[in-house]
Write the structure tokens for this entry.
Amino acid sequence: MNLYIEQHYPERPTSQQTWFRSLAFESSSSQAGGSNMTKARRTSDPKPSVTTAATSSATKTRLPTVACLGIRVHPVPAKTRRECKTPDLIAACEALQVKCKHLFNRIADLLEDIRQARSRGTSSLSPNERSRSAMPFVLTVDVGTTVRRNLTARRRLQAWERTGGRCVLCGCRIDGARERWIVEHIRALELGGADDLSNLGPAHESCACEKTKGDHRQTACAKR
């Protein structure tokens, strides 16, 4: 039957042919329309300038601002700022200004003192440094010829038992568990004292330091 229709009615298309032809027509028309629209868009849209490109790049690299984050910022009115200045706050600020001014003046005075001390080539000394600087300088050669023997634990115990735990300089009892003490020569070696048990005894560390200073002074005076 189909062969008969194609032979006698070649100009009449079948329903399948009609559907393919309509589909081809729609696709061709859509392509033509799309190309026409593209051409029209190309002709209507101008070429992007350098300024536009720079602006777009700057927009891409721009950090998010408060406005773009959706946050509204309202400046504090001048009236509110004036109301914040309460009498207590004003008084505290004035007191702080006075303290700062006093500190700045004190710092300026200290800097001036340091500058003057450096210009004179001297520096302020603490009380301990003053007493130490007042001591005469004693060299090693000023020490006597008496040979010092090693102080063993046995000799240390014998010196302690010799005085019954009392300081040979001040005469007070020494608390061996709480106080610092040493075995001291009653007569200094540099002044001719002997290094034997009869010249040894326990002494407070502070008492021994004062005695050593006096021994140095006597030695320096004897060498003059």
Remarks:
- DSSP finds eight helices and two strands in the chain.
